[in-house]
Amino acid sequence: MTPRTLYDKLVDSHTVRALDDDGLVLLYVDRTVLNEYTSPQAFSGLREAGRKVWSPSSALMVVDHVNPTAPARVPEMADAGAALQTSYFARNAADFGIELFDQMSPDQGIEHVVMAEQGRVLPGMVVAAGDSHTTTYGALGALGYGIGTSDIEHYLATQTLPYRRLRTLRIVLDGVPGPGVTPKDIIMGVVRAIGADGATGAAVEFQGPAVEAMSVEGRMTLCNMIVEAGARGALVAPDAQVLDYLRGRPGAPTGALWEAAAEAWLGLRSDPDAPFDREARLDVSTLVPLVTWGTSPDQAEAVDGAVPDPATEPDPVKRRGMERALAYMGLAPGTPLAAIPVSHAFIGSCTNARIEDLRSAAQVLRGRRVAPGVQAIVVPGSTRVRAQAEAEGLADIFRAAGFSWRQSGCSMCLAMNDDVLGPGDRCASSTNRNFEGRQGPGARTHLMSPAMVAAAAVAGRICDVRALEA
Ligand SMILES: CC(C)[C@H](C(=O)O)[C@@H](O)C(=O)O
Ligand code: SF4
């Protein structure tokens, strides 16, 4: 048999039939998750065509993008647009028979955090959903990818999608990360190294000792943020850690079925000599905590470094991009990153708001206070994560430090609810995108790890977390 990558195996095992000779197939898709923002037209399409959902139990509906995160939750949304989106969402759930976690549900949260913690995504599955960060599920050995609204409709009606096989990119992570270097710093290091277009259209498989040593939640951060290098799929071969993560979750099999599944899952890996189209390597021991200074996720620098000078960039296109980014960010070349004051700190998003993220930020905040003038908020990735953090005493640490302890949702990751920054606000943010206006018109975003956000909140400026952890 020709050696195959894990990606090839997942695509092959889900191929209903080939649609052309060039890699276009009809793919069987196991599951989806729907949000209130990208699903409405898909349901309207089904209604107009008089179609039903083929397999309602294969889908889950979660309110996450527009809901407020104010500490006291109410069923009615004050914002008229959000109220309309969420009420149509609920009507679609009821009419099409799909399970819904609305904003009042104890299981609500950011869709990708919820799918994993509920055990709705299992190794070997293909999951397509109307959100680019569906790649997160690669951490569990499942092929997740983002789709548009017309594809959501196609999925709901048929459980299949036309799918063009992707080029593969193996990213090997060697070495042991040094102090303060988290999975977020590692994926930011990867994106910086290969560029914001370095994985365009690729199915990435992360391999290597640093991946094997990483927690499953850390691998979710990798698979989530590789989208910012253009990836359309991400995978890590499932191992014993993945089994430990999944065992006992609501959607995980039990008894003999679990035993059989676990054995099969551990066999899901690329053959040793499987060919990848491309390969990249990074020694994570060379990294230090990273911070973005620009408006593209690859515009990142070591926290103990300085804002780069566009004048030293030989590529004219890159140079103009840097100049424009610095103008938007209000930064001068040569400014030490650790001298940049912040007005806001945000810990949240499907990249970095799981329990391990909250623990690492709380570790920095214990016994410390947010600097005067800094508004700091923490938005747990799910309502379950929030409850767990409360049970572990993390919420008390955040509150005592002066952070606002919120309900779950996408929140300030993309500012579709009322958590919006103003022009000129500067935010230390644990999120994945720093595009112009992402957190509000004219607002400036510096991406970093949750621990680094905590450090920035305390210092009132970008701050090397290693100084605080020492
Ligand atoms: C709203 C949705 C389409 C979008 C995505 O696909 O990623 C959002 O979640 C984001 O992070 O920008
Ligand atoms: S948390 Fe941010 S990145 Fe994740 S789905 Fe929501 S808006 Fe997109």
From TrEMBL:
Cofactor stoichiometry and binding remark: Binds 1 [4Fe-4S] cluster per subunit.
Annotated binding of [4Fe-4S] cluster, by residue: 350, 410, 413
Record's subunit section: Heterodimer of LeuC and LeuD.
Known pathway: Amino-acid biosynthesis; L-leucine biosynthesis; L-leucine from 3-methyl-2-oxobutanoate: step 2/4
Gene: leuC_1
One GO BP: L-leucine biosynthetic process
Protein name: 3-isopropylmalate dehydratase large subunit
Family matches, as CDD domains: IPMI (cd01583)
Enzyme Commission number: 4.2.1.33
